[in-house]
Amino acid sequence: MRHSETREPLVLYRPLYGDHGLWVRPFTMFTESLMVDGLLRPRFAFEHGGTAID
């Protein structure tokens, strides 16, 4: 999936909490790390056992 004007790679995902539907983020933002409590941690982590998108 790419942005229609910039051709930047995008990631389509569904949060595991709440009823928020689907979201899209730039690939670079999706895979970046953030400082949390003084530790550098990935913004997102793969969770096993999910279901396919309906």
- Strand-residue fraction? 25-35%
Structural class: mainly beta
Distance between the termini: 18 Å
Look at the structure and give the mean pLDDT.
Answer: 88
Radius of gyration: 13 Å
Strand order in the largest sheet: 1-2
Describe what you observe in this structure.
The chain has a domain at 10-42. It is built from 1 helix and 4 strands; from the N terminus they run E-E-H-E-E. The chain has one helix at 27-30; strands at residues 10-13, 23-26, 33-36, 39-42. With 54 residues, it is mostly beta strands. Strands 1-2 form a two-stranded antiparallel ribbon. A two-stranded antiparallel ribbon has the order 3-4. A hairpin with a 2-residue loop joins strand 3 (33-36) and strand 4 (39-42).
Distinctive features:
about 55 residues, flat, two-stranded antiparallel ribbon, single chain, two-stranded antiparallel sheet
